[in-house]
Amino acid sequence: MISIVIPLYNKVQHIKRTLDSVLAQTYQDFEVIVVNDGSTDGSEKIVAQYADPRIRLINQENKGAAVARNRGVAEAKGDLIAFLDADDEWLPHHLETIMRLRQAHPDAGAWSTAWVRIVGNRLSGPVNVNNMKIIKGDSNSAIIDIFQGSKPLYLPFCTNTIVIKKDVLLSIGGFPEGIAKSQDGDTWLRLAFHYPIAWSSIPTALIHTDGENHVATGKYIWMGIPPFFKSLCGLVREKGGWNNVRKEIVHYVMKLHRNAYITNILAGNKKAAMQIAADFRSVKGHRLKGYLLLLLLPVAYVPPGIIDWLWRIRRSIKTRIPMSNGPVIRRSYIREDFKDAQEN
Q1: pTM of the model
Q2: With helix as H, strand as E and coil as C, how does the chain read?
């Protein structure tokens, strides 16, 4: 049986769409655990209207999505766990596709399909198979290696597409609590450290961006220090030293850390940028980069208007879009995204 965990926080306009997509699955051996994370808009009342005995509603004080997901996992009766956000949906063949993938790759720790994002009336995706290395199989059914992919943070799966063994999720520590952003991204990174992941290029999940309390997503979302480097250090301790960890893993995580450095520079967050530069200096093969990043710290004091102007020039050169189209990013955007993430 598959236990489907849905964290719910103020999604009164969307939770019915989400639950209906679950009940419409062609594969029907599942239970649904909706963890109401202190909603104030009556979202839980929509869930309570369903008479299907497979749907369970658990209420708790608002503690964040990571705590809600971990609570759902703890309550799960199935040996497989699926996740779905309360404003997204699955196509009817999602779970059936996952189970076929599991049959083809029974030794994997988790299985996932592709997904598409709905932005207004436009579809974005699915992810191109060229963004990862296929270890075994083909794009329709493969064991993949995300650490040899071409675009860090451009993962071929997301929380809404993964089905994972319950014991595997518990063995990697579940979702990290007390972190404002990317709890799920860090979880799947730790999963990839230890277990093979099976993936299908068939898109079966629709990720909506119209949620009432949807946190804005974009390339630059971090103002602060993300958890990825800490997780890498944990892997290094477990393996007994940096030399015992695959170089591809180290390079992949350090690319993520570099992206976080850029974001903090744009946000004017010197303290976090200094910490990230120090992290680079602690890793063999990346120490020179750490010193170079330290030299760039004065950029954190450049006025926001100049940062915007320089970023617009960069975009204009790269995309040939005239600068008159407006700025790509402002420091205030980053701060607002980070504030929203903490509140949600």
Answers
A1: 0.81
A2: CEEEEEEECCCCCCHHHHHHHHHCCCCCCEEEEEEEECCCCCHHHHHHCCCCCCEEEEEECCCCHHHHHHHHHHHCCCCEEEECCCCCEECCCHHHHHHHHHHHCCCCCEEEEEEEEEECCEEECCCCHHHCEEEEEECCEEEEEHHHCCCCCCCCCCCCCEEEEHHHHHHCCCCCCCCCCCHHHHHHHHHHHHCCEEEEEEEEEEEECCCCCCCCCCCCCCCCCCCHHHHHHHHHHHHCCHHHCCHHHHHHHHHHHHHHHHHHHHHCCHHHHHHHHHHHHCCCCCHHHHHHHHHCHHHHHCCHHHHHHHHHHHHHHHHCCCHHHCCCCCHHHHHHHHHHHHHC
